[in-house]
Amino acid sequence: MAKFAIDLKTGNLKADETPIEAPKELIVGIDLGTTNSLVAYIKDGLAVAVKGTNGKNTLVPSVLHFTQEGQILVGDEAREKLISDPENTIFSVKRLMGKSYRDIQAVHNYFGYKIIDDDQDSLVKIRVKDKYYTPIELSAEILKALKQRIEAELGETVNKAVITVPAYFNDSQRQATRDAGKLAGLDVLRIVNEPTAASLAYGIGLDPALSQTVAVYDLGGGTFDISILRIEQGVFEVLATNGDTFLGGDDFDRTIIDHWLKVQQIGPTVLEQDKNFNQAIRLLAEQAKKQLSTQANFNGTISDWNFSLSLVEFEQLIRPLVQKTINACQSALRDAGLLANQVEQIIMVGGSTRTPLVKKMVSDFFGRSVFDDVNPDEVVALGAAIQADVLAGNQKNILLLDVTPLSLGIETVGGLMDVIIPRNSKIPTRVGRRYTTSIDGQRNLKISVFQGERDLVEHNRKLGEFILKGIPPMPAGLPKIEIQFLLNADGILRVKAQELRSNLEQEIEVKPSYGISEEEMALMLIDSIQNAADDLQARSLLEARNEGNNVVLSAERFVVQNREILNEEEIATTQSLAQTLREAVAGNDKDAINRHLEELNNYTGPLAHRAMDHAIVEAMKGKRV
């Protein structure tokens, strides 16, 4: 629309040629952390982290508390409940993202809340009172709190975000983070690697004339990664990454706890038996770690127990953990084909890098001073805000590669959409994932390809399907079928399925975006966000049903195969629990299904161990060791 003004000399209207600035799109940057989370945005050209209503702290503790009244508290209020009500207070949920129980069983005692051991490879579930939650649902509550915080700051609705993840996060963990954002009412435009965000926060990569090799050493509460980046003409290339998704400040705390328990001759089982003491000593260890960053000694008490630690003792305890990070740095450099002295900047990220021993060992390894001018707690969120500003079109010097506009995936059991290439993934790209059969002796497998953002394929757009025929007959779960999605720069998708044991393969080619307008894509996206809660509920129910059916079948097979070592009561109880689970699976209450799943697994677990011991004894008969 033309803009007019009054000519003061003539009194006539004249065209005003001052350009009208289009309102800038608001996209925020979020660091969803293990210990703390925060949200940032661009204000007057600078990235700023948003403080709470008290105007003091930018950090939101990544802690949730479920009250007796059914409310969910997030942040400082929730953190206060860690000691008084540990079973209903969830922390370090990021460590559970995309994980199965088997991934975390070695450290499950350190969590004050109940993580379900279902002896399956499915993603973990957390029980709070009589309800079962996934890490996705819990992370969504933290993201909602961050969304509310920035909306209160700006006085407007925020619905688009960039969320950061460790560079070491796998596809499952990245997808879980996207799903959490959607459930929180956010359109997650990009999942950005934390080292890339940290580099942007230091202004590295913003000047296209500069080229640099950068190491980003990121040691947070729960994860560690080292990334070697080459940045040229505004393009970030990851030369190598290494690290550990289960190493961080939480592990520093645990070494202190183990040391104190040993000194005081307290058995480690007390951590599982007394959840209040578990959290009290965990928080005291965290306090000791922080104090020893600036002081030489720490003293604290819990009830009648006195706990002390010197800086020398602390550094002896954590040195092996810090050395693991240095070993990862060596591996990353080797993979990048570089020597330590070829790295021009070392950026320190994460609150755990405040530990003096960490700074010293990293500086000694690279042979130069580390870069830690920006608050290490905020640096990733600030970088995410800069990346968000780039996506909003407000910075022109950074190259953004083409992305796929809608998620691509296949249909799995129960009509679920399993996303293989998420929306906004850079193209060209190639992603593979392994599947198996669900029926004994299955010879054919239909692969149906869909595009869209909803959790059930019935709400998405079907692109095509093909059948992988002639699979050698095997028990369910034994065939290894790899499905690869290859999306080229023109948006053409090739889907290939291969049974790895027999090398049988089949493929199809489709054009994902054909026939969909920008408006239809936007409507599909809005629809997915508006229905995120219902979709997750439907997905959770279907997943619980699938898992329940599998466990019922396993229990029935177990009884048949092991009758000789089971007594009548054990057989009757197993069959009764399996029947109860079968009835629950026929219903619509996913919490009831999960409850009966847990009961059956808890009862049959010891029986399965006994059966395994019996099988080993039988196999070893007549053999000398």
Name given to the CATH architecture of the domain at 28-204:
2-Layer Sandwich
> How many runs of DSSP E, i.e. beta strands?
28
The N- and C-terminal alpha carbons lie at a distance of 89 Å
Major sheet details: 6 strands, mixed
- Assign the structural class, choosing from mainly alpha, mainly beta, alpha/beta, alpha+beta, or little secondary structure: alpha+beta
Low-confidence sequence ranges: 1-20
Share of β-strand residues: 15-25%
Shape, per Cα inertia axes: globular
CATH class of the domain at 28-204: Alpha Beta
Instruction: Give me the CATH superfamily of the domain at 28-204.
Output: ATPase, nucleotide binding domain
* Discrete helix count: 15
Features:
disordered N terminus; 4-stranded mixed β-sheet; 6-stranded mixed β-sheet; Nucleotidyltransferase, domain 5; Substrate Binding Domain Of Dnak, Chain:A, Domain 2; alpha+beta; 625 residues; 25% strand; 36% helix; globular; Substrate Binding Domain Of DNAk, Chain A, domain 1
